[in-house]
Design goal:
The longest helix has 23 residues. The chain is mainly α and about 110 residues long. The radius of gyration is 16 Å and the shape is flat. It contains 7 helices and no strands. Helix 1 packs antiparallel against helix 6 and helix 5 crosses helix 6.
């Protein structure tokens, strides 16, 4: 049973690039930009690819959303795994939205 879970769920999830499943680079960028921080994924990606920080942020957000959608498709055959993933995802984003240190209440997220 464990082998089936590993083969059908965990291995394909690793192909989603786990770092892009975690939206912290997107959700913390506003706070970091206000503080003048440049050693973050958004700024480093912009520098490496010769694009603006806004374009870099958009690309990272798009990649994160695509990976999130892919993870849901991979987990669909296992309702309990999908529920656990969705609960974690919602809680993760809610934490950033509610935490004052990220200052997300200052911007419109719609």
């Amino acid at each position: 049973q464990l082998w089936k879970v590993r083969t059908r769920i965990i291995s394909p999830l690793l192909c989603c690039r786990p770092h892009s499943l975690i939206p912290s680079d997107v959700l913390s960028f506003y706070k970091e930009a206000l503080a003048g921080e440049t050693l973050n994924q958004v700024c480093l990606t912009a520098r490496v690819h010769g694009i603006s920080k806004n374009e870099s942020l958009r690309r990272i957000a798009d990649n994160t959303a695509t990976s999130h959608e892919r993870a849901q498709l991979i987990l669909q055959p296992s309702p309990s795994a999908l529920k656990a993933y969705m609960d974690f995802s919602h809680g993760y984003v809610a934490f950033y939205a509610e935490a004052k240190r990220y200052r997300l209440d200052e911007i419109a997220l719609a």
